[in-house]
Write a structure and sequence with these properties.
five-stranded antiparallel β-sheet; alpha+beta; 132 residues; 30% helix; binds zinc ion; binds guanosine-5'-monophosphate; 3 helices
Amino acid sequence: MCLFCKIINGEIPCYKVYEDSDFLAFLDISQATVGHTLVIPKKHVANIFELDSETASKMLVVIKNITNKLKEKLNLSAVNILNNSGSLAGQTVHHLHFHIIPRYENDNIHLAPDAHEIDHEALKNTLSKILN
Ligand code: 5GP
Ligand code: ZN
């Protein structure tokens, strides 16, 4: 059984932020910033590629509600919401989870990708691969 399934069934403790019949949210053990929270579906799916549409749409509502609760209780003005799907993307626990990472002044978190030169030919080529 995976680590997060063990947290769901209570074998491993967590700092629970929210729970309902389909989802659990708890503090990330390694807090990127204060209030860093993970939101997971109780049904084991490895990553976004495996997520069904019904769970996906419910999950966004749960993420939004928890984000607003963190905003209110921790007095946030900004947040990053992040999912790593696949090892190459940095996923280390292969049970789907979204990170809610509160942002604070001078928190030294750098998530924005580097800017690149604009290449319209490459953009057209990529789009035709996606659409065709
Ligand atoms: P990933 O790199 O897969 O997107 O994120 C996995 C996250 O799970 C990491 O941020 C890591 O700190 C967190 N994590 C790993 N083990 C545990 C644990 O036992 N409990 C909690 N609460 N978080 C964990
Ligand atoms: Zn699992």
